[in-house]
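Researcher: Structure for this, please.
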Amino acid sequence: KFREKGNLFVIATGRPYFRIMHKIKKYKIPFDYLIVGNGSVIFDKNNKIIKSKFINKKTSRKIIKDLKTNDKVIEMYSYKLTLSNNISNKVLEY
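Model: Predicted structure, token format:
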């Protein structure tokens, strides 16, 4: 009803794409925009990336190294854009 009234429904989460998409598909949640990875990727309602901003590999490796040294890593994900502008990701650390 919210969307039928002309409102946009945006889901914004720090979670990685594949984790939130699992719930969206399971519960059939319609959305207009999806913001994942603490704002690093924005998708439209057709799951097409409309904006992304990533940390380069050198910086991300330094962050992982620093976090591992301090025993602070719980979960860390790596996103990779494919040529078709889709996203894949993998767990880097637990």
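Researcher: Any notable elements?
Model: The radius of gyration is 15 Å. The first strand starts at residue 10 and ends at 12.
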